[in-house]
Amino acid sequence: MNRIADLSVQLSGCVSSETIIRRDEPMARHTTLRVGGPADIYVEPAGEADLAAVLRFCSEQRLNWLVIGRGSNLVVRDGGIRGIVVALSSPVFAQITQAGHCLRAGAGVRLKQLAVEARRWGLSGLEFLAGIPGTVGGALRMNAGAMGGETFRIVVSVRMMTESGEIQELVPAEMTVTYRNCQTLKSRIALAAVFQGVPAERKAIEAKMKAGSEKRWSSQPAAPSAGCMFKNPTAIPAGKLIDELGLKGASVGGARISLEHGNFLVNDGGASAKEVLALMELAQARAKAERGIELHPEVEIVGVDG
Ligand SMILES: Cc1cc2nc3c(=O)[nH]c(=O)nc-3n(C[C@H](O)[C@H](O)[C@H](O)COP(=O)(O)OP(=O)(O)OC[C@H]3O[C@@H](n4cnc5c(N)ncnc54)[C@H](O)[C@@H]3O)c2cc1C
Questions:
Q1: Ligand 1 mean position to 107 CA, how many Å?
Q2: Which residues line ligand 1 (CB under 6 A)?
Q3: CATH assignment of 3-91?
Q4: How many helices (H) and strands (E) does the chain have?
Q5: Separation of 281 CA from ligand 1 center, angstroms?
Q6: What is the mean pLDDT of each run of 10 residues along the chain (306 residues)?
Q7: 94-204: CATH topology
Q8: Taking the complete model, does pTM exceed 0.85, yes or no?
Q9: Could you give the residue ranges of the DSSP H alpha helices within 87-235?
Q10: pLDDT (tens digit, 9 = 90+) per residue, 262-284?
Q11: For a substitution probing ligand 1, which of 27, 42, 58, 72 has the most ligand atoms within 8 Å of its CB?
Q12: β-pair type (251-252, 255-257)
């Protein structure tokens, strides 16, 4: 038996039979850009106890782990991921409960579902989440934002697990949060969070969600992507800069810079991560050479080369 097969058998002995464990799982299946080679071991823990057991196993075996949501901010390299990929896709992590003007949502809840649930309870402030195609866990880690809203502006507290399997519940003031980054969650796994809403008419909430969705559909591509590739430099929005550089429509293999939005790189079908990264490097080189501007990735690039 090879080491990965051996490790996955050992891991299955540490968790309940409901936990899903797969070997050589193609990450292209778990990213919205649809690129990425295999993860050595892919796990969907059936609950918090199994998640803690997986983290302990990683520590004992000195294995790297990576938690993913919907993979909507990830570029996984073609060689895949060495170690264990953890996805909180079990229904246990997808529950939403309401108390007063707050909603408590599991890390696996899709952001659209959370926004829809907030509308059902007549709670405003969460509308911006509706168009972000990630999960609560990913939005917390990325401090995702849109349409003037930002995740941590509506977070009351976050329940999380440390690398040693300990559970903590922290309020934002105890966490390090900046633009599109919650550093506290870099080495912890978000399990759930409480979000604060503001009572409002359902019709008004619906109108905000509709306006946001119309804005997205008119300005963003429908083809597979990982959202905005680059952070906005202070001087100019990244999409505008890429447009001004004449790069809209530029392609490397199956990877293409969207004609609809210069900061979106789309997979025309069959793109490899290598092609995606080559196209990103091309945009970075042109921005630097022609405008003296450094473009920094907003997407997270993980894994090893093919
Ligand atoms: C079409 C499109 C539009 C987008 N629009 C926006 C937008 O308007 N605004 C915006 O901010 N983003 C946008 N994004 C990017 C992306 O959707 C967000 O960053 C989202 O929050 C990522 O969530 P995810 O569940 O997909 O996380 P993933 O991409 O799976 O992971 C992102 C990061 O979060 C970490 N992570 C995931 N789950 C957890 C957890 N439970 N605990 C700790 N860390 C975790 C991962 O390790 C990784 O570091 C867009 C993407 C696409 C494809």
A1: 12
A2: 32, 66-74, 88, 107, 132-135, 137-139, 141-142, 144-146, 185, 189-190, 220, 225-227, 300
A3: 3.30.43.10
A4: 7, 21
A5: 22
A6: 92 98 98 98 98 97 98 98 98 98 98 98 98 97 95 98 97 96 97 98 97 92 96 95 98 97 96 98 98 97 96
A7: 3.30.465
A8: yes
A9: 111-120, 136-142, 202-219
A10: 999 999 999 999 999 999 999 99
A11: 72
A12: antiparallel
How far does residue 111's CA lie from ligand 1's centre (Å)? 10
Q: Which atom of ligand 1 is nearest to the CA of 147?
A: 8
**Separation of alpha carbons 70 and 114, rounded Å:** 15
Counting residues of the chain whose pLDDT is more than 90, the rounded percentage is 98
Beta strands in 93-232 (DSSP E): 96-99, 102-106, 123-124, 145-146, 149-150, 155-161, 167-170, 177-178, 181-182, 189-196, 198-199, 225-228
CATH 3.30.43.10 segments of the chain? 3-91
CA–centroid distance, 174 to ligand 1, in Å, is 22
Residues 99-125 have pLDDT tens digits of: 999 999 999 999 999 999 999 999 999
CB 17 within 8 A of CB 47: no
Domain(s) of CATH 3.30.465.10: residues in the chain: 94-204
Rounded to an integer, what distance in angstroms lies between the CA atom of residue 75 and that of residue 85? 14
CATH architecture observed for domain 221-291:
Alpha-Beta Complex (3.90)
Ligand 1, atom 3, residue with closest C-alpha: 227
Q: What is the distance in A from the centroid of ligand 1 to the CA of 72?
A: 5
Contact 301, 75 (CB under 8 A): yes
Ligand 1 center–CA 135 separation, angstroms: 7
Substitution site in 65, 73, 184 for ligand 1 pocket (most atoms within 8 Å of beta carbon)? 73
Q: Where are the CATH 3.90.78.10 domain residues in the chain? A: 221-291
